[in-house]
Automatic annotation (TrEMBL):
Keywords: Isomerase. GO terms for molecular function: isomerase activity. It comes from the Bacteria. This is Hydroxypyruvate isomerase. Belongs to the hyi family. Residues 23-250 form the Xylose isomerase-like TIM barrel domain. Pfam families: AP_endonuc_2. It comes from Sulfitobacter pacificus.
Length: 252
């Protein structure tokens, strides 16, 4: 089966102004893109860029950045529940305008049982408030890239998802983080496949382009095809040079 690839415009073509990255991605053959934190740009401007380049926006992150200087993401912070709900309502409005199917909910820096329960409660609330057709995702992030981040293990993510038990909340798999956390990105994909709703790819240990590091991408793509995964696979990595020259993984 054919795999569907998207470009993460927060990482790729970093040398270009934001709206020009849509043009570059379209020229490289991408019909779908991700933008981690699009909130500095008016939704209508992004909408025009998507229409002009024949693309769809498949994922954004939430909550929006905390411009007061606090940590980015706080879904697992007990003292931030009111702020979480306030900001998520803004995210939902943004997602509706741009017809985004996935919103990655960031947990922030936290630890302990109270943080886990807060995350579960926040996701239950968010799943009930989310617009129709929108899926919320959890993504474990490794401790090297995100020190102190609460959701730092795939088993923990599975535990939280089981407790939330909502059809519109699922797992976001990232090969870079999976390799860094557990040492075998392919084994992580196999183990947690039933929970995976969205896939991102990058290599370890430096989050470089696929096939430049430790991840077995031949094995991973084989497993993705065997699973008949029909969703998007987004390149979320640092190109370390011209982005066009880092796309051999997609062309192959």
């Amino acid at each position: 089966m054919s795999l569907k690839f998207a470009a993460n415009l927060s990482h790729l073509w970093p040398e270009l102004p934001f709206l020009e990255r849509f043009v570059a991605a379209a020229a490289a053959g991408f019909e779908a893109v991700e933008v981690l934190f699009p909130y500095d740009i008016a939704a209508k401007e992004i909408q025009r860029a998507l229409i002009a380049n024949g693309q769809r926006l498949v994922l954004i992150n939430a909550p929006p950045p905390n411009y007061t200087g606090g940590a980015r993401g706080f879904a697992a912070q007990p003292e931030m529940v009111e702020r979480f709900q306030y900001d998520m309502k803004r995210v939902f409005r943004y997602a509706e305008v741009l017809k985004v199917p996935f919103v990655h909910v960031m947990t922030g820096v936290a630890e302990g049982d109270a943080a886990k329960q807060t995350l579960i409660d926040n996701l239950k609330w968010a799943s009930s408030e989310a617009p129709e057709g929108l899926t919320l995702t959890l993504e474990p992030l490794n401790a090297v890239a995100q020190p102190g981040y609460f959701l730092n293990d795939y088993a923990l993510a599975a535990e939280v998802l089981a407790a939330v038990d909502a059809p519109n909340v699922g797992l976001q798999y990232d090969s870079y983080h999976a390799q860094m956390i557990h040492g075998d990105a392919v084994a992580v994909f196999d183990q947690y496949l039933p929970l995976i709703r969205h896939i991102q790819i990058g290599d370890s240990p430096d989050r470089g382009a696929p096939e430049t590091g430790e991840v077995d991408f031949d094995g991973l793509f084989e497993r993705i095809r065997a699973a008949e995964y029909a969703g998007w696979i987004s390149g979320e990595y640092s190109p370390n040079g011209p982005s066009e020259e880092s796309l051999g993984w997609m062309l192959r």
